[in-house]
Amino acid sequence: MIHSPPLQAIFFDIDDTLFSTSSFAEKARKRSIDSMIRLGWKVDPEKAYQELLEVIAEFSPNYGSHFDKLVLRMGESCSEGINSAILIAQAIVSYHDAKNELLHPYPEVLPFFRMLAKTNLALGIITDGLTIKQSEKIIRLGIYPFLNPRFIFISEQLGISKPNPKIYQFASQRCRIPTNQIMYIGDNPNNDIVPANKVGMITVRYVRDGKHRQPSCTVSPTHEIQNFEQLREILKNQYQIELKE
User: Which of 185, 175, 14 is nearest to 105 (CA)?
Assistant: First the structure.
């Protein structure tokens, strides 16, 4: 079935869509704890990691003082003889160092973006999170050169957060492209697919890594893929857009 009217733009989620956020976060957090232990912090690494997960769940992933709370909760005896500020700084430095080594897109992402850049499609981002953190990911993943600079929409910057459908409607209005001519690709059924469906976008659920990789019977995206090669075939067969290497 050929889609009509023609597709004009593709918007992407970032986390667990363009790179494995879940895998990166786990590795980076554990590295931070290990670096604190090497500095002299007297804790069991797995117990500290589980406590850190509780902190994150209670205060949200975007809270800025996870390691401060972790040190407090593990107790003064664990950090005896160590300045707590130095201990926390060690964790933060280790976490940011991990970004240089581990924060990379899935292998097929950049080749796929290069092919998309040869078409007339506008490419953009609709992502949830803090402005600076999501912007950093766009830069580190190497996708910025392929994006239309006006088509980057970050929830904190807009004052609208997923799953509010208004963030998708806002993107459509700002770009002056009807929602039924925009494809949105994301992994989260409730935050990405359901609200984008509500405003009439063509939705693609990306099932690969992360906590949303399990099938969902209650959500019906327009398409479901496990890799971008499948999307390449969908674009060719249903939207008459052929991607060339």
Answer: 14
Task: Give the integer Cα–Cα distance in Å for 170 and 112.
Answer: 26
151 vs 8: CA distance, rounded Å: 13
Q: How many CB atoms lie within 10 A of CB 245?
A: 6
Helices vs strands, H then E, count in the chain:
10, 6
For 127-166, letters b (16+ CB in 10 Å) and e give: bbbeeeebbebbeebebeeebeeebbbbbbebebebbbbe
Cα–Cα dist 149/125, whole Å = 10
pLDDT in tens, 64-110: 999 999 999 999 999 999 999 999 999 999 999 999 999 999 999 99
> Which residues have C-beta within 8 Å of that of residue 104, sequence separation ≥ 6?
19, 140, 141
- Residue 39 to residue 218: CA distance in whole angstroms: 48
